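C-alpha cells incoming
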C-alpha cells in the first residue's frame, strides 16, 4: 500500500467516525478530496497573512506559533494525526492570522480551501463533520489554555508527558519548552527529574 492509499485509509476512518455516510458515498468522495503532501519546513501560514485554508492532518506534525514584538517565537500548539486546524479561528478583527504554521515533519493533510465557499455546495454530513471537528479543536484549545493558567510549570510538564507523550520524541526541546512556558534549561531540569 503506497502513502496516498494509506492517507485515504485514514481519511475514510475519519469520515466514518464523524459522519453517517455510506461506504459507497465515501469512496466516491475520495477522488475529489484535496490531499496534499508537503516537506518538513514548509510554512503553511505566516502571522499577518489572511488565511484561506483549513486543514485536517493525516500524517505529520505542524507547529503553531506567534512571534512577539521582540521577535521571539512562542509555541502555541502542535497538530498531529487526526487533528483539524480551523484557520478561521486564528483571525484578528481585520481577518489577518495571529499565528504562523510550519511543518516540523513531512506532512500529509486534507487542504480545505475556501471553507466558507465550499460549505454552500457540500452535503449536510460534511458540514456536520466539519462542525464537530472544529468544536473538538476549540474545546481542546480551551482545556490547554486553562491548564496553562492554573498549573505550575512542573505540572504543565507532567501534563505534557501524560497527555501528549509522543511530542517528547517528535518535537525539538526548544519548542516544547516554549509550549509549556519555560526556558529550555528549565525543561531539561524537569526532564531529568522525571527520569
Amino acid at each position: 500500500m503506497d502513502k496516498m492509499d494509506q492517507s485515504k485509509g485514514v481519511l475514510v476512518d475519519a469520515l466514518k467516525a464523524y459522519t453517517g455516510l455510506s461506504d459507497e458515498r465515501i469512496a466516491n468522495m475520495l477522488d475529489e478530496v484535496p490531499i496534499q503532501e508537503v516537506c518538513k519546513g514548509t510554512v503553511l501560514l505566516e502571522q499577518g497573512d489572511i488565511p484561506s485554508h483549513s486543514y485536517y492532518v493525516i500524517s505529520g506534525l505542524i507547529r503553531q506559533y506567534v512571534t512577539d514584538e521582540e521577535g521571539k517565537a512562542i509555541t502555541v500548539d502542535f497538530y498531529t494525526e487526526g487533528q483539524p486546524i480551523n484557520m478561521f479561528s486564528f483571525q484578528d478583527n481585520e481577518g489577518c492570522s495571529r499565528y504562523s504554521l510550519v511543518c516540523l515533519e513531512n506532512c500529509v493533510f486534507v487542504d480545505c480551501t475556501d471553507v466558507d465557499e465550499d460549505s454552500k455546495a457540500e452535503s449536510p454530513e460534511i458540514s456536520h463533520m466539519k462542525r464537530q471537528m472544529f468544536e473538538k479543536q476549540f474545546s481542546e484549545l480551551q482545556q490547554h489554555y486553562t491548564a496553562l493558567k492554573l498549573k505550575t510549570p512542573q505540572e504543565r510538564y507532567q501534563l505534557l508527558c501524560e497527555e501528549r507523550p509522543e511530542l517528547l520524541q517528535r518535537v525539538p526541546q526548544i519548542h516544547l519548552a516554549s509550549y509549556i512556558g519555560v526556558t529550555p534549561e528549565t525543561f531539561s531540569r524537569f526532564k531529568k527529574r522525571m527520569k
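note: The two ends are 39 Å apart (CA to CA).
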